[in-house]
Amino acid sequence: MPYKAPTLSTLIARNQADIESRLPGTYARTAFRTTSAIAYANAGNAAALHDHLAWTSRQVVPHLADDDKLLEHCEFWGVWRKAATNASGTLTVIVSADTLIPEGTRWQRPDGVVFESTADVHAVAGDNRVSVTAIEAGRKSNTAEGVPLELISPVVNVQTQARCQYIGGGAEQESMDSLRSRLLFRVQYPPSGGNQYDYERWALEVPGVTRAWCLPRYRGHGTVGVMFVMDEEPDIFPGPADLNRVKDYLTGHINPVTNQVEGKTTGAELIVMSPIAKIINLSIRLSPNTEEVRSAVKANLKIYLESLRPGSLAFLSEIRATISNAPGEIDNTVFSPTTDIHAKEHEIFVLGEITWR
């Protein structure tokens, strides 16, 4: 049975009854008596001990532990918290004549985010690509293709405006909920020399990756397929730079806890790819049909669809149950879809448009 600490009022009543049973004729329940004061004081001490026991009982299991104790569990199991990372990528810079763009040259995005070049570039007249990295870590430095950037310090023969090719890989420090989830995955699926769950665990160790799936023998014997998404980004599906970043990590990386090389097994052909969205549009009659209940239904459906693996079934009965479990919902009718929905091996479910009736 789970440990449940008695309440303070229960402990006071127990102490009062105990005193009265051991000292016949005394009244420990009457205010301003010595026996009553003793009962209250002893109950207070006992309550503190019970509270500490209740706290201790939560710390011994990772999914209930406080954040500081969770970090200790992670250290024991060899799981580390993903640090915030700086976005990196390339800019297209226009040069009027041959020149040197020195390492550390800085450009600024319209919203103030600053990037600097990572190496000297011997540029020639015309378009040149310059590798850059963000000065500050975090997701805000991820930049879509085509966004203009301004040169902060002038460089001879270099136009002030540059264009982003793609800058990505920036991520915030991992949340404690994500870390807790990865620790439970590590405990439930221990390392096995490169099986399906090893690849998924490795992919989840890459900053920005929130969900990952391994497809054993994806293109026959000796091949391994890995798909992943980045739920914290506006577009959760990875681009070419993200795919290369994850593939490099899966190919081989140093475990910072053991200082040993980990990665794909020798001889395996690794195929890292983006999943394809299997969009589910719904038509729902909802009661009460308010914004609060609609938001709750959307949140529930999103959680349900994200819990499904590629190639699985989205059961109509589970969709109905998910809607029914939304806080504030009284009644609903699902007009569309009308049957269970199947995703292919490389497809993941994504919540589409909801028509409210």
TrEMBL record:
InterPro entries: Barrel_Baseplate_J-like (IPR006949), Baseplate_J-like_C (IPR058530), Baseplate_J_M (IPR058531), Phage_Baseplate_Assmbl_Protein (IPR052399)
Boundaries of every Baseplate J-like central domain copy: 191-261
Top-rank taxon: Bacteria
Domain Baseplate J-like C-terminal, first and last residues per copy: 280-356
Segments forming domain Baseplate protein J-like barrel: 90-160
Pfam families: Baseplate_J (PF04865), Baseplate_J_C (PF26079), Baseplate_J_M (PF26078)
Family: Belongs to the Mu gp47/PBSX XkdT family.
Name of the featured protein: Bacteriophage protein
